[in-house]
Write a structure and sequence with these properties.
It is a single chain. The protein is of the alpha/beta class and 247 residues long. It has a single domain, classed as Spore Coat Polysaccharide Biosynthesis Protein SpsA, Chain A. The chain is built from eight helices and nine strands. The strands form two sheets. It has a seven-stranded mixed beta sheet with strand order 3-2-1-4-7-5-8, with helices on both faces. A two-stranded parallel sheet has the order 6-9. Helix 2 links the parallel strand 2 and strand 3. It is globular and about 45 Å long.
């Protein structure tokens, strides 16, 4: 059976960006077997309509939340639907739906998994070759501080960037993680990204990082991240997962 690449997008009011992301995905994966899963997290614009239109010519599963529940809840919904569809050697990729994570980087994420060199690959801001374009200063500080805290309190060999959600996972690893934890994301907000990687990392997968090119200058509209709340939730995640992993 051919390896299938599954792309998971959690989208909230991304009508203006989602089409570019979807077209970018098809341009880099169009010659292979792939499927896109979009969770429309209670958008008030035409996000769902963009996905429905793209679905007419491309493989896409659209799941809708009636009300906005947050990034973590959308990822939970997506993983709940996606993981049972994974074969052990399939690859699942998560990236932001706002076009700040270039789909052109997907091949570099999935290659180490396809070649048997890694089980999880993360697009990282902390490796040589990484670039951030148009990222506000407060976002850079938040990422740096969060990275330091997670590396110190919840170290995962090979991982430095815990908060970037642009990742690829081997299907067997996600299936094992769901079997162990049940729910990978219990956080509803942006701290869910760190929660997921820590839970997956508890299985001791082979983790590799590749340089991230973060194009924040392509973001349409204001950020949905509340900095103070995100910092607080990341600290809460660290404390909760340290207790959980010790039990």
């Amino acid at each position: 059976m051919d390896t299938v690449i599954h792309i998971l997008l959690a989208a909230y009011n991304e009508e203006r960006a989602l089409g570019d992301v979807l077209n970018g995905i098809s341009s880099v994966l169009g010659d292979g077997a792939f499927n896109v899963w979009v969770v429309d997290d209670g958008s008030g614009d035409g996000t769902g309509a963009v996905a429905e239109d793209w679905k007419k010519k491309n493989p896409l599963v659209l799941i809708r939340h009636e009300k906005n529940q947050g990034l973590g809840a959308a990822l939970h919904t997506g993983f709940t639907a996606l993981i049972p569809a994974l074969s052990p050697d399939d690859v699942a990729v998560t990236l932001d739906a706002d076009n700040t994570h270039p789909p052109a980087q997907i091949p570099s994420l999935i290659k180490p998994i396809q070649e048997g060199q890694a089980d999880v690959v993360v697009a990282s801001r902390f490796v040589p070759g990484a670039k951030t374009v148009g990222v506000p200063f407060y976002r850079r500080v938040l990422s740096d501080v969060a990275g330091l805290l997670f590396r110190y309190f919840l170290p995962i060999p090979g991982l430095r960037d815990y908060t970037c959600g642009f990742r690829a996972y081997r299907g067997s690893v996600l299936k094992s993680a769901q079997g162990k934890w049940g729910r990978l994301a219990t956080e509803n907000g942006f701290a869910a990204a760190a929660e997921i990687i820590v839970k997956v990392g508890a299985l001791r997968p082979r983790v590799r990082e590749v340089p991230l090119v973060l194009r924040y200058d392509r973001k349409q509209g204001p950020s949905q991240m509340r900095v103070g709340q995100t910092i607080f939730r990341n600290v809460a995640v660290i404390l909760r997962l340290r207790r959980l992993l010790r039990s």
